TrEMBL record:
<feature type="transmembrane region" description="Helical">
    <location>
        <begin position="236"/>
        <end position="257"/>
    </location>
</feature>
<dbReference type="InterPro" id="IPR000515">
    <property type="entry name" value="MetI-like"/>
</dbReference>
<keyword id="KW-1133">Transmembrane helix</keyword>
<keyword id="KW-1003">Cell membrane</keyword>
<feature type="transmembrane region" description="Helical">
    <location>
        <begin position="172"/>
        <end position="191"/>
    </location>
</feature>
<keyword id="KW-0812">Transmembrane</keyword>
<dbReference type="Pfam" id="PF00528">
    <property type="entry name" value="BPD_transp_1"/>
</dbReference>
<keyword id="KW-0472">Membrane</keyword>
<feature type="transmembrane region" description="Helical">
    <location>
        <begin position="35"/>
        <end position="57"/>
    </location>
</feature>
<dbReference type="Pfam" id="PF12911">
    <property type="entry name" value="OppC_N"/>
</dbReference>
<comment type="similarity">
    <text>Belongs to the binding-protein-dependent transport system permease family.</text>
</comment>
<feature type="domain" description="ABC transmembrane type-1">
    <location>
        <begin position="105"/>
        <end position="305"/>
    </location>
</feature>
<feature type="transmembrane region" description="Helical">
    <location>
        <begin position="284"/>
        <end position="308"/>
    </location>
</feature>
<dbReference type="GO" id="GO:0055085">
    <property type="term" value="P:transmembrane transport"/>
</dbReference>
<dbReference type="InterPro" id="IPR050366">
    <property type="entry name" value="BP-dependent_transpt_permease"/>
</dbReference>
<feature type="transmembrane region" description="Helical">
    <location>
        <begin position="140"/>
        <end position="160"/>
    </location>
</feature>
<dbReference type="InterPro" id="IPR025966">
    <property type="entry name" value="OppC_N"/>
</dbReference>
């Protein structure tokens, strides 16, 4: 009797993470929303312009050798007195407004991303500690959070910025001022992360996988980082997206009030503050175009954040 050899079915490779993402409900929700796709595209365009500002900008507004006072306060190129290559006109120092916006975008986004990263790291860490260990640590962290919630974020940022500058001195270079802005903005927004993560940890730590991890002797930091943290990243991602827009607005407000980036290294907020001084003298373009750029950027990020909040909400699926 002849036994025919069995032919095994060809093994199918499991789908990659990218393939699983494109098959997920989140990607389907993203494709269904044209407004979200337009906002995400606009946000990526702003990021692209900020990263390549040194290549795309007609002028380096930070280089005094490229500035000419004879070109100051020129209107946009479509006006009667407009001159090439100043497409959007110039400011009082002869800086090309378009170039200043591109470089200002870089600074505003840099402060926003670093501020969100700092606040998220601080808030997530404190939220994990408060939710997992409880007791005195939980009470202390949450009471500090409750006290900070009684003050507006911009007031906290102004207070921290003023204290740091009083300690270090007011005559600081642009790099130090940027670090102070990131520090003050980061300390202004950590509370939302801490409260959200703490609530999620209180739910997750009572589940079986945490009990199993404790049973096999895993230390608390490993349980928190490797097992609990991946299950609380959804709400954190939503908060981070929305807080990115808030951080950019906060930086612009601080710069507009004169406590942010200096005029030699202007962000969008600094450009708006400079242009506001010449608004009633007829040079409207100095404040209008940076203001439009800031409003468009913040609106695009907020639209993406609103979609992400709804997409990650299981009750709305």
């Amino acid at each position: 009797m002849t036994v025919s050899p069995q032919v095994s079915a060809p093994s199918v490779a499991p789908p990659s993470r990218l393939e699983r993402f494109f098959d997920s409900d989140i990607w389907a929700s993203f494709r269904r929303s044209r407004l979200t796709m337009a906002a995400a595209t606009l946000t990526l365009v702003f990021l692209f312009l900020a990263v390549l500002a040194g290549v795309l900008a007609p002028q380096n507004p930070f280089d005094p050798a490229q500035l000419e006072l004879l070109n100051s306060r020129l209107p946009p190129i479509w006006e009667a007195e407009g001159q090439a290559p100043f497409l959007l006109g110039t400011d009082e120092q002869g800086r090309d407004i378009l170039s200043a916006i591109l470089y200002g975008l870089r600074i505003s986004l840099l402060v926003g991303f670093l501020g969100v990263a700092f606040s998220a790291t601080l808030g997530i860490g404190l939220g994990l500690i408060a939710g997992y260990f409880g007791g005195l640590a939980d009470a202390l962290i949450m009471r500090v959070a409750d006290v900070q919630l009684t003050f507006p974020a911009i007031l906290i940022a102004l207070l921290i910025d003023g204290v740091v500058k009083s300690v270090l001195g007011s005559d600081l270079d642009a790099g130090t001022i940027l670090a102070v802005l990131v520090f003050s903005i980061g300390l202004s927004f950590w509370v939302q992360y801490a409260r959200t993560v703490r609530g999620s940890v209180l739910v997750e730590k009572s589940k079986d996988y945490v009990a199993a991890a404790k049973l096999i002797g895993l230390p608390a930091p490993v349980i928190l980082i490797k097992h609990i943290l991946p299950n609380v990243t959804g709400p954190v991602l939503v908060i981070a997206t929305i807080n990115l827009a808030l951080a950019i607005i906060t930086e612009a407000t601080l710069s507009f009030l004169g406590t942010g980036m200096p005029e030699t290294m202007p962000s969008l907020g600094t450009l708006i503050r400079i242009g506001n001084n010449y608004l009633f003298s007829g040079e409207w373009w100095i404040v209008a175009f940076p203001g439009i750029a800031l409003a468009t950027l913040v609106l695009a990020i907020n639209l993406v954040g609103d979609w992400l909040r709804d997409a990650l909400n299981p009750k709305l699926r």
